[in-house]
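Please, structure for the following, as C-alpha cells.
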Amino acid sequence: MKRANTQLLFALATLLCLCFLPAHRCQGAEKNSGQASGAIFTNSQPISNGFVFVEGQYVDAPYVVSRKNLAIYINDQFIANYAPLVTEIPKPEDMRPTLPADITKDTTLYDKSLKAYMTRMGTYLSSHYGRSELADEMEKIFRNLPCVKEVKRNPDKTSAMVTYTDGHTINENLIPFTRKPVITPTNAVEYVSKICRDYAERLEKGDFYSFSHKGNRIHTFGAGVAKEVLPNVVKVLRSSQDDEVKAKQLADLLGLSPISKEQAGAFVTNLCPSKRLDERVQALSNDNKRGPAD
C-alpha cells in the first residue's frame, strides 16, 4: 500500500511539472521576441546602418531607437513626442462647433484648445458631408484659423500642406478619422511602438534621416538615394563656399525647392568635422564606383 501511494505521488508530481512546462516555455518565447510585430516597443538592438542628423549635427552609429512613454529617441536624441497628439474622438455634435476665442495667431499646432476644436470640427463634418465635400470644408477650416499662415492643397486632394504662424509646416489630413489611424489613449503606446519599429527597420536598410530639436522630421530618403546623394551633400557642406551657395546646392541635391534658411543653416553651421562620418561616406562613394556586384 505504501509503495502504491509513493508511485501515485510521483505520478502526480510528474503531471504537475508537465502542466507547467508549456507555460514556462511560452513566457520565455514572449520575453525573447519583445520587439516582434504587435509587441510593445522599448529599445531596438544597436543598428550599424543608416544615417541620422539632428539640427545638422551627425549622430554616429550604431543607433538605438527607444521609446520613453510616447516620445521617441535615437541614441538619446529626442526625435518626436506623440503625447500632445493623443485625442479622444467625441460623438458628433448637432450644431457646427464655433472657433474658441483662445485660438489666436500665436496658437501652436500642439495647443490643447486647437486640437480639441479640430477634433470636434472633424467629427461634425465627417457626419454631415460626403468625402469630397468633407475635404473642401476641412480646407476652409484650416484657412480660417488665425494661427495658419498658408494652406496648399496636395494633388491627392485629400490632404494639404499647412504652414502655421510659428513656422511649422505639416501635411494635414482633410479626411478626418478615415485616412490615418487616430492616436487615442487606448492605442497610443501601440501606435508609437509601430513608428519606432519602422525607424529601426528603415535604419537597418540604410535610410537617411534629418531631424530638428523641435521634434520635426526635416528630410528623409531611402537607402538607395542616400547612397547616391549623401556623399555629395557632405562634399557641399565641407566646401569653402558661402552659406547661401551651399543652401542652393543642398536644395538641388535633395530635389527640393530652396530649403529654408533655418534648415540649411543648421546643416552648414552645426556639421562638425567627424572622422567616422567621413569614413562612412567614403565607403558609400567606393560602393558607387564599384557599382552592382556581377
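Confidence is low (pLDDT under 50) at residues 1-36. The CA atoms of residues 14 and 287 lie 60 Å apart.
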